[in-house]
Amino acid sequence: GDSVTQMEGPVTLSEEAFLTINCTYTATGYPSLFWYVQYPGEGLQLLLKATKADDKGSNKGFEATYRKETTSFHLEKGSVQVSDSAVYFCALSDPVLTGGGNKLTFGTGTQLKVEL
Amino acid sequence: SAVISQKPSRDICQRGTSLTIQCQVDSQVTMMFWYRQQPGQSLTLIATANQGSEATYESGFVIDKFPISRPNLTFSTLTVSNMSPEDSSIYLCSVEDKPLNTEAFFGQGTRLTVV
């Protein structure tokens, strides 16, 4: 079945440091890929997405490129801020497998803590 | 985008009792989903709530334990029945506002503690 593997946390960085959170996947068809963010005490929010190979999703300074050859969707940000402290989830949706519905398979989440 | 209201936001319940969680969406949506997020773990899909028919459950989840209602296109409930401490989790409602896999929106979740 489909699966998502992401690097374990917690990740602790100083403000303005470079961030990479690794994510790899296995899927039956041609999935869409997502990064969701969960700020403390809040629900999940979509951060960015990519729906086909070589697409780059970007939002709020975060980027991730859909790499079919390496089955990866690593999240990057050039300069993190304290306000980026949250849990980040990589996820995929495989419409072939789910018959068109947006049923998501999530990674285990990576907690990011940014310090001054 | 869809705005989702989930109630209650948190609860502490006695083992052996049941809790019903409500999910209200501000627009009609095709697909509604219920997820569980156990402490320190990722989200696991419990079931897809189908309007006008029984919910579709994922492996490891059964209707007797997690009965779901979907009376219309804007509302669903999830009941956690005969609770035990292992049911302590965050339960999240999710919707897709368009068909064919565009984006999922999540409620803020219900934090359940069973004592």
Tally of strands of chain A: 12
Quickly count the helices of chain A: 1
**Portion of residues within helices of chain A:** under 10%
Largest sheet of chain A: 6 strands, mixed
Classify the beta-strand content of chain A into a percent band: over 45%
Number of strands of chain B: 11
Q: Could you spell the SSE succession of chain A in H and E letters?
A: EEEEEEEEEEHEE
Shape of chain A: globular
Poorly predicted segments of chain B:
none
- The termini of chain B sit apart by 37 Å
Using the alpha-carbon principal axes, give the shape of chain B: globular
What is the first-to-last residue Cα distance of chain A?
41 Å
Indicate the structural class of chain A.
mainly beta
Radius of gyration of chain A, Cα only, in angstroms? 14 Å
Query: Cα-atom Rg of chain B, whole angstroms?
Result: 13 Å
The percent range for strand residues of chain B is over 45%
Low-confidence stretches of chain A: none
Please give the oligomerization state of what you see. heterodimer
Helix/strand order of chain B? EEEEEEEEEEE
Mean pLDDT of chain A: 91
Describe this structure in words.
The complex is a heterodimer of chains A (116) and B (115). Chain A has one helix and twelve strands, in the order E-E-E-E-E-E-E-E-E-E-H-E-E. Chain A is mainly beta. Chain A is globular and about 45 Å long. The model of chain A has no long low-confidence stretch (mean pLDDT 91). By secondary structure, chain B is mainly β. Chain B has no helices and eleven strands. Chain B has strands spanning 4-7, 10-13, 19-25, 31-37, 43-49, 56-57, 68-72, 75-80, 89-96, 104-106, 110-114. In chain B, the strands form two sheets. In chain B, strands 2, 4, 5, 6, 9, 10 and 11 form a seven-stranded mixed sheet that branches. A four-stranded antiparallel sheet of chain B has the order 1-3-8-7, with no helix packed on it. The radius of gyration of chain B is 13 Å and the shape is globular. Chain B starts with a strand and ends with a strand.
